[in-house]
Amino acid sequence: MHQLKHSTPGTRRPAGNASPATMFWKFDLHTSSHIDQLLDREDVTLRELMEEDDVLQECKAQNRRLLLFLSQDHCMQELVSLITTEPPADLEERSRFKFPNVACELLTSDVSIINDKLGGDESLLEMLYHFLEQDPPLNPLLASFFSKTIGNLIARKTEQVITFLKKKEGFIGLVLKHIDASAMMDLLLRLISCVEPAPLRQDVLHWLNEERLVQRLTELIHAGKDEERQSNASQTLCDIIRLSRDQASQMQENVEADPLLAVLESQESVAGLLKNMFEGERSEASIVNGTQVLLTLLETRRSGLEGLMDLYSQGYERSYTVNSSILNAIEPHLKDFQQLLQDPPKKSAILTTFGLLDQPLGNARLHVARLVAALLQTNAPNICQELCNLATMDLLLDLFFKYSWNNFLHFQVELCVASILNHPSSEERGYTCPLFQKCRLLQRILDAWEENDRIQADGGTRRGNMGHLTRIANMVVQNLEKGPVQTQISDLIRELPEDCRGRWESFVDETLRETNRRNTVELVSTHNMHSSSEDDDMESPFPNDLSLQQAFSDYQIQQMTASFVDQFGFNDEEFNADDNSVTAFEACCKERIRQFDDAEEEEDIWDDKEINYATQCFVSSPGPGWTANFRDSGETAASQTSPGWESSAGSAAETQTGWANFTEFQPFSG
């Protein structure tokens, strides 16, 4: 290697005014890549280059010699063959898919010379397409390589690839034939969302509509179909709805409507989906997957965490209107959903954290509860009236108290009650009347509360639905004080038998007030706030707590397995210290501590404040067995033995302190 001579201390630049960069190249200080050394050989093979760890880096760095080598016909054919052909089974498992993986990364490295070669050579596209012509099932890893490669071409060489695919009459049929592979679902969504410019995208949407994509996906949601195919078909339809609505909200008003969304929202399409769900032998898979599509159609905002962020950033401005054709198609089938609540698909007993559950609630009934909550939120008169006639709320309340540990169900019932109390009806007594009279809401709250007090007095565990029951009771009191159905609630309470009315008033004034006092967290001290009647009447720019909870609940349910909602039951007050609650608690503590340094303030900051019945923020309070540990920050600060775990069977559970015993759980089943 050449050696540089040291310059004298006073010298600022190399002799001859040469820059450091010039010196670098002049003396050849860079280390040449081993790939370049391999390329110096005339007999170098593609596999030898792919063995190099930095081959992908060199490719993305536009190493011209490497790119010229890779773009040769025989190299491109070998790369495509690697991602579409099953590797020999006798290879070591960890190395079987090494070359296919590297080949996929090279083909999708987004280098123009490779994109041009792959997208412009029809023989290479034919090799790719041949992968779809195999009999199912596809190798899931190869399917993902194929989908990624085609998806990259759809985004980069759009016109060439779309023209090629449209000439293949059976393309959509082959994709749906392999829809059990999630990679095929991704491919369809790329066709819908990654095509630019807008006129070409609209052309693709019309082509997919002419191929009856929506109808063919809907036909897959049927009791006679494989559950994996049903699930992926359902998810694809849901994603099409959300993608189409998002893109429509970003387009100008004069842009042509999305034909796929128009079909999905049509009464004929929704009716066809419902027919498939209830035709023949009922299966939980078809009920759940079909209901997920209906729930997506009924969304007035994006679901899950994306919807949660929209609520925070934009309030309710970003919303969608529920098409009346959807509701018209659902209404005749409300009796079928009611029947599902009464007689769900059979499920075997399962062992849970609180004992043996002989007849689990099941994912089907949970999704029906979600659907009823979504329908009530539309406040559509015909839908609400039919639900009243069927006494659906009465049945949901029965399930609320029967499955006292299923908080997913409890939250949906709470949403139903909130919708009825927050939406005034055009009728004289509205839908509030059946809730208080036929469903006997107040009597049920009082009876359940007294029953829970008896259980706890005997040393038992607090019921898991008590937190939601508290919120429902507060909701009634709130709407009695100020709400759209204030007069109706007041009249209905006056019509209660005298002993029941007395029990309710005593419960509100004493028991509920004390419960709220224990559960309330003061986020900001009153001494830092001014009071004015104008501020009291102002609406907050942020969405209400129930809407945020609904968005998060939707996200949670999307992540759960079918059996998780039955396997785990928690007391929602004991186990409700989520991130928001912890953040609120820390903010409260900091506020309290700061006030001790305020010498000018003489008010006792720990005085009891006025208790109201607004939606409370619950933080679990220390129970028996709670001990503080301040030895050092690296250790556990507190330990708690919750009564919720004490019912676990077996001697192993008795030796635990605050942890569940999972040794006797039955295996999860779909």
UniProtKB/TrEMBL annotation:
SUPFAM superfamilies: ARM repeat. One of its GO terms (cellular component) is cytosol. Residues 631-670 are annotated as: Disordered. One of its GO terms (molecular function) is protein phosphatase binding. Residues 636-670 have a biased composition (Polar residues). InterPro entries: ARM-like, ARM-type_fold, SAPS. Belongs to the SAPS family. PANTHER family: SERINE_THREONINE-PROTEIN PHOSPHATASE 6 REGULATORY SUBUNIT 2, SIT4 YEAST -ASSOCIATING PROTEIN-RELATED. This is Protein phosphatase 6, regulatory subunit 2a. It comes from Oreochromis niloticus (Nile tilapia). The gene is PPP6R2.
